[in-house]
Amino acid sequence: MSQKFAIFGNPVAHSKSPQMQNAGLKHINYDGIYEKHHLENGNEIKEVFLKNNYKGANITVPHKEFAYENADEIRGLAKEIKAVNTYILEDGKVIAYNTDAPGFLKAIESFGEVKNVLLLGAGGTAKAIALALKSKDINVTVLNRSENKLDFFKENEINYFSWENFKPEIYDLVVNSTSAGLKDEYLPCPKEILENILKNASFAFDCIYGKITPFLALARENNCEIKDGEDMLLFQGVLAFEYFTNSKADESLIEAMRKGLKEE
Ligand code: NDP
């Protein structure tokens, strides 16, 4: 029987997950289809998932926390992140995972060993990244524009600052997990703070993909090795795909999914 998968979001029209996941399904000759599902009310996510007979789903903005609240069982680091991006149906139960966190770790592997990270931003993505790094015993400091999203990091014993009270150290990797640079040309924090940090750093990673953001441009000017968020998007998708299809991804599958992601 053909299986159905979906991505839930609001908005969801821009999502590249269907082209990436369908390329993967095609590559392994899996009888299934992955579609976009616009969802208004995040509290209905489990009900809608079951009613549509989905075998698996991804969840994007703004429903990741609702998806966490509504799942029957949460597995892995998602229990601490308290937000999930993947649902699978297992024996009639909705099982939830967060693949953004391991996807990020996989994406920064190409930098080699990293010990001390400055993470710009404190939104949903920052929570997943901070706990992913902590799980690998990598030192992480969060720096955010405002104070109001910092409680989560305090509760999880992660160093945190706002722009107002920041006391910089030396970091080998700087990560932009803010939305600054996505649809505008802003830096994720004031240039006078950022430039000094980048001068002493080796690597810069931006969660935004498909463009050189002002953050990556400044990092490059300061001789950092830079990387955008494409691999993070790819690897969260690959890990979700493994759960969806109960299979192990090999290099040829990963490349097929990357090609799918890049299709216009
Ligand atoms: P959230 O809305 O949860 O958080 C946004 C964060 O950005 C907040 O900390 C906010 O600070 C900060 N921010 C927004 N605008 C500015 C600005 N002009 N200057 C400085 N800080 C700013 O977003 P998400 O965590 O969901 O997503 C963050 C980014 O990560 C997005 O660009 C998204 O596209 C990208 N992303 C990439 C993924 C990938 O796979 N590559 C996966 C998921 C997300 P404040 O608290 O002060 O408002």
TrEMBL record:
Assembly with partners or alone:
Homodimer.
Q: Where is the Shikimate dehydrogenase substrate binding N-terminal domain?
A: 7-86
Name the enzyme group at the top EC level.
oxidoreductase
Binding positions for NADP(+) per the UniProt entry? C207, G229
Which gene specifies this protein's sequence?
aroE
Q: Which residues form the Quinate/shikimate 5-dehydrogenase/glutamyl-tRNA reductase domain?
A: 113-180
**Coiled-coil features, chain-numbered ranges:** none
**Entry similarity comment:** Belongs to the shikimate dehydrogenase family.
GO annotation, cellular component aspect: cytosol
Domain (SDH C-terminal): give its ranges: 229-256
What this chain does, per the record?
Involved in the biosynthesis of the chorismate, which leads to the biosynthesis of aromatic amino acids. Catalyzes the reversible NADPH linked reduction of 3-dehydroshikimate (DHSA) to yield shikimate (SA).
- NCBIfam families hit by this protein: aroE, PRK00258.2-5
Tell me which EC number(s) this protein carries. 1.1.1.25
Keywords noted in UniProt: Amino-acid biosynthesis, Aromatic amino acid biosynthesis, NADP, Oxidoreductase
Protein origin, superkingdom? Bacteria
| Active site residues according to the UniProt entry | K64
Q: Which HAMAP family match?
A: Shikimate_DH_AroE
Q: In Gene Ontology terms, what is a biological process of this protein?
A: chorismate biosynthetic process
- Which first-to-last residue range defines the signal peptide? none
Name the record gives this protein = Shikimate dehydrogenase (NADP(+))
Q: Name one GO molecular function term.
A: shikimate 3-dehydrogenase (NADP+) activity
Q: Per its UniProt record, what SUPFAM superfamilies does this chain match?
A: Aminoacid dehydrogenase-like, N-terminal domain, NAD(P)-binding Rossmann-fold domains
The positions annotated for binding shikimate are: S15, K16, S17, T60, N85, D100, Y209, Q236
Organism of origin:
Arcobacter cloacae
Q: In which pathway does it act?
A: Metabolic intermediate biosynthesis; chorismate biosynthesis; chorismate from D-erythrose 4-phosphate and phosphoenolpyruvate: step 4/7
